[in-house]
Amino acid sequence: MLGQQRIDLLQRVPRLKPMLKSRLFPPALMLVTLFVFMLAILSGLFGTPAGSRNFGIIFVWIVWWALLIILLVPFFGRAWCTICPIPAPGEWLQRRAIVNRTSGRLRTLRWRWPRRLKNLWLQNFGFLGVAIFSALILTRPNISAWLLLTLMIMGVALSLLYENRVFCRYVCPVGGFIGLYSLVAPVELRVSDPQICASHKTKDCITGNEQGYGCPWMVFPGKLARNNYCGLCLECLKTCPKNNIVINLRPFGSDLLVAKERRLDEAYKAFIMLGCALLYAGVLLGPWGWIKQWANMDTLPHWALYAAGFLVINLVVLPGLFWVTTAFARRLAGQSISLRHLFVDYAYALIPLGLAAWIAFSFGFVLVNGSYAPGVLSDPLGWGWNLFGTANVPWTPLWPTLIPFLQVGVLIAGLLFAIHIAYRIARQNSSGHRQAYLAMLPLGGFMAAITFMFLRLYAG
């Protein structure tokens, strides 16, 4: 695919559209993921405290995470949101049904979500809150279970108070980074002809009809320009009477070049995700054992210092260094655009670099620990069961000698793609190629330095 060419998957794969328009999709898949989700909670609360033998730890933070960050997000964007079990109970309570389209308004108190919170800031701070406790969450099944249960309760509670998926859109810490990295994915939901939407009076995709509900994500498909706020629930595909909804295959990173949609809260999400990936690699893979002990809360004062450092690096140090880099790039290139505008714009070039960093981290994590999954599948609670005859499968790291090469390859590819995006953004803010190339010198140096830090941690 060259340029901005799109391929309509619904036309290329004729059997796909009837399946996606069925009312069974996605509730049937959500019931499956809800079962797995509840099993993860139960195993955390009542199963073995040994993380390597607990279903919740292995299948949430290793199997699910690997599928999410290595496959689903980079290639399918918000596909996980389509089948995520967390909003399902609250949404089914709102609709008073799981599959069938019920008549009448959603059952909720219909409170209005505060205007000042219609952004990513709650998700940013929510993700940081989870990340600070990640060493405990990843190793202690009961803490992991309480986190999952809390997310479920929050989803149900907000569904009772507000219409639609307020939790998913503005609160969910997982949804925040999925939305950010979905800007890179090659799959998008759009409309075939925006003029058809503009002239259509009833706006069934917003209000709903007998075929489906109005968009639970509070998005008007006719003006959809990026992936980050579309949860791919496909209600618009079911309700559109004009057959105007399409699912396209397009070049990677297309949404990163949509200039009019860039925002400071998303820029900070890019810093947070990149910073957390770097800190995780340092804590878990670096030679500083004392940091790992502090992250595991060996003492409360040590953990408090670790948490403070974690926040300062993500919210002050990394953005501050990038601000200085942007100022240098602006001065070197002689750009007249405001520094704040350039700071936000150039931050979007860090998104593919951050995604590559998370993929590299996940390769090491899942290939080393993934062999725990067959045994845990047969004995999910650690009670001595052997349901599928795999309980005694030994732990065996997969391709340990290949892991550094995978990590280095992904990081280099992420750096090259990030530099490409940075140049395209610089070109949008420059009067010519020379000005864009000059701006790229400090930006490329910043991204290369970050990549070198990851390479030092992964390759030694």
How much helix, percentage-wise, in residues? 55-70%
Distance between the termini: 37 Å
In terms of DSSP E residues, the strand content is under 5%
The gyration radius over C-alpha positions equals 23 Å
Task: Give the number of helices.
Answer: 22
**SSE class:** mainly alpha
How would you sum up the global shape? globular
**Pattern of helices and strands:** EHHHHHHHHHHHEHHHEHHHHHHHH
Mean pLDDT: 95
Count of discrete domains: 2
Report the strand count. 3
The largest β sheet comes out as: 3 strands, antiparallel
Strand order of the largest sheet: 1-3-2
Describe this structure in words.
It is a single chain. The chain has 460 residues and is mainly α. It has two domains: 7-182 and 187-249, no CATH class; 266-459, no CATH class. It is built from 22 helices and three strands. A three-stranded antiparallel beta sheet has the order 1-3-2. The chain is globular, with a radius of gyration of 23 Å.
Question: Can you describe this structure in just a few lines?
Answer:
It contains 22 helices and three strands. The chain has about 450 residues and is an all-alpha fold.
Describe the secondary-structure layout:
Layout: E1 7-8, H1 9-12, H2 16-21, H3 27-46, H4 55-76, H5 79-83, H6 88-95, H7 121-132, H8 134-137, H9 141-161, H10 166-171, H11 173-181, E2 187-191, H12 194-199, H13 204-207, H14 235-239, E3 245-249, H15 264-285, H16 289-295, H17 300-333, H18 339-347, H19 350-369, H20 372-378, H21 403-428, H22 433-459
Antiparallel strand pairs: 1-3, 2-3
